[in-house]
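Supplementary Methods. Inverse-folding protocol.

Structures were first reduced to a discrete structure-token string of length 248. This string, shown here, constituted the complete conditioning input.
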């Protein structure tokens, strides 16, 4: 097996080695290098741009990017994909990509990563829905060396709550604050057990529960992003401390 952990130019063939349903509508896909070479280690928060390896002209040249949702490593990538109604590539991945199939991937890229200057202050990682993926990768990395992390996850309810156990395991182990918002809890969902708050992440809650001198990283649907950014600015959080990624 040759070793090439350096970033690559153009496209590299990766093969699907596993797929796991995280919750209804969200599947994680695990890829390795087709030739068994080492992969470039991504910076947590970065995404993998790729196209499907197929002769079907419908999918052939469609490039999409998906945040890497795994701890940074040289052996395997993981992306976690929400199936979009009528979505070309998310539907292909969910419905047609089988173990052993290939994609053609560019090297991980993106600038939504933890800044050097965040090392000396608390970090707050806030996600809504599938926007959890880049923040999860950041969480894996940052929790290795620090506990001044505030992780806030907003989802609809316990049926659509990806990575719940993973995040709970890390937060219990490392002793940092993990807060869960359900916008639409089910009858079976229990406050204080399944979730902490009903509704959305809002200005009042941020003011009372999060350190305003922290660096903030967040990702989710556009209305959520606009709301969080507006709240942080209203509360006087420095613009340089506000970092986010849009999935569009
Ligand atoms: C930096 C970055 C990181 C991303 N990371 C992830 C990730 O980790 N997991 C993930 O599931 N997705 C992620 N996305 C979104 C992903 O790249 C695709 O845009 C998404 O899967 C839709 O692609 P598609 O080919 O299925 O839909 P398309 O065929 O491109 O679009 C079909 C329809 O869906 C609408 N649509 C497109 N994207 C979205 C969306 N995100 N939400 C709602 N409607 C949409 C379009 O307006 C269109 O009407 C990321 C996007 C970016 C830019």
């Amino acid at each position: 097996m040759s070793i090439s952990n350096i970033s690559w130019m153009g496209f590299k063939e990766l093969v699907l080695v596993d797929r796991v349903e995280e919750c209804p509508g969200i599947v994680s896909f695990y890829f390795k290098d087709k030739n068994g070479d080492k992969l470039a280690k991504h910076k947590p928060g970065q995404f993998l741009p790729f196209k499907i390896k197929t002769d079907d002209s419908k999918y052939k040249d469609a490039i999409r990017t998906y945040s890497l949702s795994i701890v940074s490593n040289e052996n395997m990538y993981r992306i976690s994909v929400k199936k979009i109604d009528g979505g070309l590539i998310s539907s292909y991945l969910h419905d047609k990509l089988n173990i052993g199939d290939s994609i053609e991937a560019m090297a991980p890229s993106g600038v939504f990563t933890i800044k050097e200057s965040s090392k000396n202050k608390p970090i707050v990682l806030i996600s809504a829905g599938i926007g959890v993926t880049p923040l999860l990768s950041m969480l894996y990395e940052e929790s290795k060396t620090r506990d001044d992390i505030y992780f806030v996850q907003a989802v609809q309810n316990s049926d659509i709550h990806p990575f719940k156990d993973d995040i709970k395991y890390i937060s219990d182990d490392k002793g940092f604050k993990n807060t869960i918002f359900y916008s639409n809890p089910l009858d079976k969902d229990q406050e204080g057990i399944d979730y902490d708050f009903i509704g959305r992440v809002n200005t009042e809650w941020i003011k009372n529960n999060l350190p305003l001198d922290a660096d903030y990283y967040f990702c989710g649907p556009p209305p959520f992003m606009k709301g969080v950014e507006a709240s942080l600015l209203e509360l006087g959080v420095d613009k340089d401390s506000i970092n986010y990624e849009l999935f569009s």
